[in-house]
Amino acid sequence: MTTTADDVWKLLAELVEAQKETERCFQETERRFQETERVLKEQSLETERRFQETERILKEQSLKTDRQITRVSQEIGNLGGKWGRFVENMVAPACETLFLNRDIRVHQVSQRVRKRLDGKTLEIDVLVTNENHVLVVEVKSSLSVDDVKELIKNLTEFRQFFPEYNQKQLYGAVAGIEIEEGADKYAYRQGLFVLAQRGENVAILNDTEVQPKTW
């Protein structure tokens, strides 16, 4: 079969048309790619916007929660301080007569006695004195073993802060509305008086035969 000039031109025309179609397909593919890229970019921007909005909300909520925690902590602290003063105000008057049957006459009862020495501070909840004795009372709404240990530490440092009592016999006592398990027994073993609420009154829990430790 002989190929004529017309056949060649026809083939060239078909080739040109095929190239045009390929170009159209390429352009359409490019358009779709750009559209897909645009959609993905918009989605990415929307995702980023939502993420930032979520982060902002969480940050605001965290700040709000922190403020609430701070406020509640302050209220609890204020309540604890008021409750602590209430307990001290109950124990201090009782000390005026409580130690008479332990041969300790009371001449003076002071509350919240504080002394500073070399940058350190020693604070006594209740201080009971007479001409021969001085009694340091640690008062807690709920008495723990750690509270007893804290009093013992204060007793060992007491004469450094209060040398005016060096000639007096020094005793220690712990008092609590509630006493955690083991705290009273630990205090007994350390030679301390243990005071607690009994009905409407405050009482000494130690046996009368037990002699307190002199510090």
From TrEMBL:
Family matches, as InterPro entries: Restrct_endonuc-II-like
Domain of life: Bacteria
Family matches, as PANTHER family: SLR1441 PROTEIN
Protein's UniProt name: DUF3782 domain-containing protein
Source organism (scientific name): Microcystis aeruginosa NIES-3787
High-level lineage: Bacteria, Bacillati, Cyanobacteriota, Cyanophyceae, Oscillatoriophycideae
